[in-house]
Amino acid sequence: MNNFIFYKLTRIAFTLIALLSLTSCQKDLDLTQLSTNKTEIFRMINRSGESFGPAYCHKFSQIVDLRLEKIKGHERLIVVCLPLNQENIRTLKRNRYFKYAWITKSGEVTFCGWRDHNYHLKKDMTKYWDNLKYGETGDCDGFYIHSYQHQ
Q1: In whole angstroms, what is the distance from residue 35 CA to residue 63 CA?
Q2: Is residue 22 one of the residues assigned to a domain?
Q3: Where is pLDDT greater, at 96 or 129?
C-alpha cells in the first residue's frame, strides 16, 4: 500500500515539474521580427484541424497587411486578411471582405473585427456603396475598427 502511494505521489511530482518546465521555457515572441516573416504568421493563424483559423486566411496570399502597434501599452501584431475579393468586370461590382486579427507576444491569435465592402463603380469610376458593414468582436480590448481604412 505504501509503495502505491509513493508511486502516485512520484507521478504527480514529475507531472508538476514537467508542466512548470514547459510554461517557464516559453519566451515571448519578438513581434518586430515576426512581422517580417509572413510564412510563420500564416502558420500561426491557419492552425490545422480548424475549418479556418481565427484570422480567416485560407491562403498565404490572403494576408494583405501587417501592422505592429502598441495598444493599451501592449505590443500587438495586427494581421489583415482578405479572404473574399471578387470583381465582376461586366457589372463593375466588387465584394471585398477584410478580417482583422492580432497576435500577442505570447503567440495567442485572436479574431478582432471585420470590414465587409460591397460596391460597384459608376460610369465615371466613382464608388457607389451597396453595403458597408464593419464591426468588432469585443475580444480585443483596445482594438477599434475605425483605425483601419482598408477598401
Answers
A1: 12
A2: no
A3: 96
